[in-house]
Specification:
This protein has a domain of 82 residues. It starts with 5 loop residues before the first helix and ends with a strand. The chain contains two helices and six strands. Helices cover 17% and strands 36% of the residues. A hairpin with a 2-residue loop joins strand 4 and strand 5. It has a six-stranded antiparallel sheet with strand order 1-2-3-6-5-4, with no helix packed on it. By secondary structure, the protein is of the alpha+beta class. The protein is elongated and about 70 Å long. This is DUF6916 domain-containing protein. It comes from Actinotalea soli.
């Protein structure tokens, strides 16, 4: 019966990692973008990918006519073409990391998605 050594464990791990990388398996987890006003406001105008489509974070606004606060703000993402995405929790991919939010379609044209953050309750 073969002896299990540290060298054997490391070799098997290296082979498994090589197979995963060659097979396209994501080995390193992407960084998450925090759902915080101070982090998201500077990203206005930048592009995200969601469900294979490119969207732009076009606005960070407050509820109603109010100014956005750390506890309550809205994110509006737009696309030049209709998105046809039903409302649900989605992962938006950005160069800085992933943003996980509940998005709802807004507007009649179907070219905008909105995420509402309300921590005031």
């Amino acid at each position: 019966m073969p002896t299990l050594t540290r060298r054997t464990v490391l070799a098997v791990g290296a082979v498994a990692t090589g197979v995963a990388v060659a097979g396209g398996v994501q080995v390193v987890r992407r960084r998450h973008i925090p759902l915080e006003l101070a982090v998201l406001q500077p990203l206005v105008g930048s592009r995200f990918r969601v469900e294979g489509r490119t969207v732009t974070l076009s606005a960070v606004t407050g509820p109603g006519d109010a100014r956005p606060t750390a506890k309550a703000f809205h994110l509006t993402f737009t696309s030049p073409r209709p998105l046809d995405l039903p409302g649900e929790i989605r992962t938006l991919e950005h160069a800085d990391g992933d943003l996980v939010v509940h998005l709802e379609p807004v507007g009649a044209e179907g070219t905008a998605l909105e995420a509402v953050v309300n921590r005031s309750v």
